[in-house]
Specification:
Blueprint lengths: L3 H7 L6 E4 L3 E5 L9 E5 L11 H22 L3 E5 L13 E6 L18 H17 L1
C-alpha cells in the first residue's frame, strides 16, 4: 500500500520540512493542534515503535528530543507535548512522533483536542522555517 509519509520522505508529496537527515524527517502536521505541531518519522518504513529496530530507537528519538528542546525558544511556547500512537489512533501506518508546542492555558484538555489550520501556505512555511533553523542551531 502507498504510504504518504514515505512519499514525503522521497520528495514526491508536498510537506513543510522542519528537519531531514539520514535517520529521520520532520514536517509540519497539516492539521496541527497549534502552529509548529511537527511529525517526526524514521526514513525506514516501520509501522509502530515496536517495529523500529532497537539500534535505531536512540538515534530516532535524539531527533525528537532535539526538536522538543528548541521548540520553546523558537516559537515562544512554554513547553512541548511529545507522543506517538501505535496502531490505535494512528492515522498513517508509518511510525511518527508528534512534537506539539504547549503554553499554559492553551485549551488542550485530556486527549480531546480541536485541530486548527495554518492561516495559509506562507504561514506554514514561515513556522516550518523557524523550527528548521532552530533545529539546525540547537
Amino acid at each position: 500500500m502507498p504510504c504518504v509519509f514515505c512519499d514525503i520522505i522521497a520528495g514526491s508529496a508536498d510537506a513543510t520540512i522542519v528537519l531531514s537527515d539520514e535517520v529521520a524527517v520532520g514536517f509540519l502536521d497539516t492539521t496541527p493542534l497549534f502552529a509548529g505541531h511537527t511529525l517526526i518519522v524514521p526514513r525506514q518504513h516501520v509501522e509502530t515503535l515496536p517495529d523500529l529496530p532497537t539500534a535505531d530507537v536512540g538515534p530516532f528519538h535524539q531527533r525528537v528530543q532535539r526538536l522538543a528542546r528548541v521548540m520553546p525558544s523558537a516559537l515562544g511556547c512554554q513547553g512541548t507535548f511529545v507522543a506517538n500512537n501505535n496502531v490505535v489512533s494512528q492515522s498513517v501506518a508509518h511510525l511518527h512522533v508528534h512534537v506539539v508546542p504547549r503554553t499554559n492555558g492553551d485549551g488542550l484538555r485530556g486527549f480531546f483536542w480541536p485541530r486548527t489550520k495554518y492561516d495559509d501556505d506562507a504561514h506554514a512555511v514561515s513556522v516550518g522555517e523557524t523550527l528548521a533553523a532552530a533545529y539546525l542551531a540547537g
